Amino acid sequence: MAAVPRFTARSTEPADPAVPAPPAPPVHPVDRRVPPGRLLAGGFQHVAASYAGVVAPPLVLGAYVGLSPLEITFLVSAALFTAGIATLLQTIGFWKVGARMPFVNGVSFAGVAPMLAIADTHTPKRDALPVIFGAVMVAGALGFLLAPYFCKLVRFFPPVVSGTVITLIGITLLPVSFGWIQGGHPDRPASLTNLGLAGATLVTVLLLRRLLKGFLQQIAILLGLLAGTLIALPAGAVDLTPARHAALVGFPEPFHFGAPQFALSAIVSMCVLMLVCMTESTADMLALGEIVGREADEKTIAGGLRADTLGTALSPLFNGFANSAFAQNVGLVALTRVRSRFVVATCGLMFLLLGLSPVFASLIAVVPQPVLGGAGIVLFGTVAASGVNVLLKAGLDQGDNLLIAAVSLGMGMIPVVSRTFYGNTAIPETLKIILDSGVSAGCLTAVLLNLAFHHLRVRRPVRGD
């Protein structure tokens, strides 16, 4: 006799209101929305921390190629505008673009050297700008295509590698802070006034971190910058000239310096730079993942690299340059413990508005460099200390790991302590781009040594062979 199928009737009665609904899954701090006041204050703090890094490359390049002050101001506004686009792509994202982590993206200073080299091949040098923009567009497009493959290298970044790279990020950024204290002239001794302003800012930040609680403690860097600027006023160290002559509204006109041109040598140079930027961004994402408590897996890194490279490909349309993640903001997240990506997205929106209003952009420029330098010691030192913390988890008591960290840190420190170390050698220019970046040189060394010691199987000779 065939078995009769049994059916179970489903109850159509409403759920018992006395039974509590299952709790909603907790929202990770990275995805947590914060009140508008904290959004604005936190976003402005990130703007203040990264502003100098965003505007430095266009200032250096603009002056080098002979642009007028008005044109340099335009180039700076374009850099701010494109940094805003790249930061929003990184924090908010769409489709598979964006790490959706609290990352600030801006103009990569690593691109300055190859761009100056391209300018040297043109007369007048300003004619190199369309060639640079064309090369940046191609490099960004190539990087976007490579992102899903490049991210697979994350398995070669165990704690001994990532900790070494994070430490180098902080160490290589500290000279930037020292240069600010020297008034932007690293070859000159710091004046007594500059030392006093940097020291006052540093002490203020430390006191605020020690004495304040809650939200005010989180914005100690911003409050320290404001206090340092106020202290600098009677010392005559605050220059208000940029604010007086800046326009209220200005849109970065597409292809303002001419249609992009495509030269093979420039494209090769920028593609090498793009690989360097992708390596540094991968290291920054690993560092931020450790800090915010959300592992930067392959999917996250691929999305982050897509945001970097798409932002780079789009930037030349608005007269911008190659973008990458900013490590100084990683230090700010570590210090404040404000992990919401929406705070950094607010920073990106502020960059957009600053790029559209040169007069407001210039207001942040009035913060004296020594004041930025005093705060930078805290920010960049925090990044280095975070890397040391990761290294402590890497098992340095094992001889191989200790050797990997030691040699990699040594290689990464070479361009930090001597900018001319590789200058007069016969090393190809493309390789010099990698070696002249402490982060890239140390990262490459750590990855190769980790492969050699932990991945490659070496057959040991057996007695009797």
From TrEMBL:
* NCBIfam families listed in its UniProt record: ncs2, NCS2_1, pbuX
Spell out where the chain crosses the membrane: 48-66, 72-95, 102-119, 131-151, 160-181, 193-212, 219-238, 258-278, 342-365, 371-390, 402-421, 433-453
Q: Which Pfam families match?
A: Xan_ur_permease
Q: Which InterPro entries match?
A: MFS_trans_sf (IPR036259), NCS2 (IPR006043), UacT-like (IPR017588), Xan_ur_permease (IPR006042)
List keywords of the entry alphabetically.
Cell membrane, Membrane, Transmembrane, Transmembrane helix, Transport
Question: Biased composition, Pro residues: where in the chain?
Answer: 17-28
What is the topology of this protein in the membrane according to its UniProt annotation?
Answer: Multi-pass membrane protein
Q: Family, per the entry?
A: Belongs to the nucleobase:cation symporter-2 (NCS2) (TC 2.A.40) family.
Q: Return the protein name.
A: Nucleobase:cation symporter-2 family protein
Where does the record place it?
A: Cell membrane
